[in-house]
Design brief:
The protein is 36% helix and 16% strand. It is α/β, with parallel strands linked by helices and 449 residues long. Helix 5 packs antiparallel against helix 6, helix 6 packs across helix 10 and helix 7 runs antiparallel to helix 10. The radius of gyration is 23 Å and the shape is globular.
Length: 449
């Protein structure tokens, strides 16, 4: 390492977000960047720790110490080549990854100031695009073809690796463009869609064929498996978890992705009628679900001009960080997370169970909820829900259900059909989907050998 004692002299410095009064009026990315001097100083903090737990924690196995050292020395091109040797799309993870590596960083254990790996990753990749460090690959074809169904992060990762191995890869996507939840779930203020388009152009130039508007049902996979040497299913988790209670049919109750995907399509130029449009403008909004999708709904509601936003979660409030006794270092701590969207204004409540959607003349006006406690189950297993106090009504003209997704069930497929990403494992992180795509590409290659 160039400066093995930098972590003792330089504190962690994050780029931070644009001011709230500025960012809530547009869908531009909220995160700012450090200047080159500051970025190199942050890279220098990656210490010669001996056992890099960051590498262990990253699903992709990113070798952060190596590319941080190259970055500190100003060797940006080398840093990118080291980074891209394990991560096919660092411009995505550099923006939206929760940075498992940083939580496992030795410096996080030492003083809760881990190396800024995620921001460094984004800076390295942007420099690579800007300076032309990214070279196109033109693999020698091996005569075999692969169909990838689904163009989300898992499908794109699998397609990228197999294409570089020499296979002719065709990607089938049901939507009008590629990216999956990167494009239709994550708001532009976290990931501008021009970043996805830039990578897609490279993949197309390297020989991957994309066919949009192809919604391939399970019953057609067997046919596809006969047309190609192998098929990869990377269809994600399309079924959101619903809340089947009284009043679910009221106008104003929507799945989170209905709002998020439509808003991203509007920003891409698609038009919707007044009746089709889902908007929080002038409304009291209730988000049910305390995860990242719920947070994305909060930020979107603010930018649409909502009156107020409340977020409720049925589970208890997480512990205050930075340490989590139930998940000690180097595991990822399940601590209270406050996102940029939460900072923009939101009432947050935990231990709240939803009882009923209330409406008038078919339109939502409020939600009946109940405070609860979780008591230990004497028989073991899941704790028992116990009501506390009396039910109350939260005023709301728009409810967004952000309670996660159901793990898909698959029929028996031919042996040359492989499943990866969320379609195989259930809803998880983008970085895990990418890692699954890479692992599945290797399985396919071994199979076809």
């Amino acid at each position: 390492m160039g400066n093995p004692k930098a972590f003792l002299e330089i504190h962690r410095q994050e780029a931070g977000y644009r001011p709230i009064h500025d960012r809530i009026h547009d869908f531009g990315e909220v995160e700012q960047t450090l200047n080159t001097r500051e970025r190199l100083a942050q890279a220098s903090r990656c210490m010669d720790c001996g056992v890099p737990f960051c590498h262990w924690a990253c699903p992709l196995g990113n070798i952060a110490p190596e590319w941080n050292d190259a970055l500190f020395k100003g060797e940006w091109e080398l840093a990118y080549h080291l980074l891209s040797s394990t991560n096919p799309f660092p411009e995505f993870t550099g923006r939206i990854c929760p940075a498992l590596c940083e939580k496992a960083c030795v410096l996080n254990r030492f003083n809760h100031e881990p190396t800024t790996n995620r921001e460094n990753e984004a800076a390295i990749t942007e420099a690579a695009f800007r300076e032309g460090y990214i070279a196109l690959h033109h693999p020698v074809r091996n005569g075999k073809s692969i169909a990838v169904v689904g163009a989300g992060p898992a499908g794109l990762s699998a397609a990228n690796d197999l294409n570089l191995m020499g296979y002719q890869v065709v990607v089938y996507e049901k939507n009008e463009n590629a990216g999956g939840l990167l494009r239709y779930g994550i708001p532009n203020f976290k990931l501008n869609k021009t970043i996805i388009d830039r990578r897609l152009r490279l993949l197309e130039q390297e020989g991957i064929e994309f066919r949009y508007g192809h919604d391939i049902p399970s019953s057609s996979i067997n046919i596809l498996s006969q047309e190609y040497d192998a098929v990869i299913l990377a269809t994600g988790t399309p079924t959101a978890r619903d809340l089947s209670i009284k009043g679910r049919e009221l106008n104003g109750v929507h799945f989170a992705l209905e709002l998020l995907s439509q808003q991203n399509r509007v920003l891409a130029g698609m038009q919707f009628t007044k009746d089709e449009r889902i908007t929080a403008k002038g409304k009291d909004v209730l988000v049910i679900g305390g995860g990242d999708t719920g947070s994305d709904c909060i930020g979107t509601a603010h930018r649409q001009g909502c009156k107020s936003v409340t977020q409720i979660e049925i589970m208890p409030r997480p512990v205050e960080g930075p340490e989590d006794p139930a998940n000690p270092w180097p595991n990822y701590p399940r601590t209270l997370k406050t996102t940029s969207s939460h900072e923009e204004g939101c009432i947050r409540r935990w231990n709240i169970n939803t009882l009923e959607f209330i409406g008038k003349e078919g339109k939502l006006t409020g939600v009946k909820v109940q405070e609860i406690d979780w008591m230990p189950n004497p028989k073991g297993g899941r704790p028992i829900m116990v009501e506390r106090g009396k039910p109350e009504i939260i005023k709301a003209e728009l409810v967004l259900l952000a309670m996660g997704f159901l793990k898909p069930e698959h029929p028996q497929y031919p042996e040359n059909v492989f499943i990866c990403g969320d379609a195989a494992n259930g809803a998880s992180l983008v970085v895990r989907a990418m890692a699954s795509g890479k692992q599945t590409a290797e399985k396919v290659n071994n199979y076809l050998k």
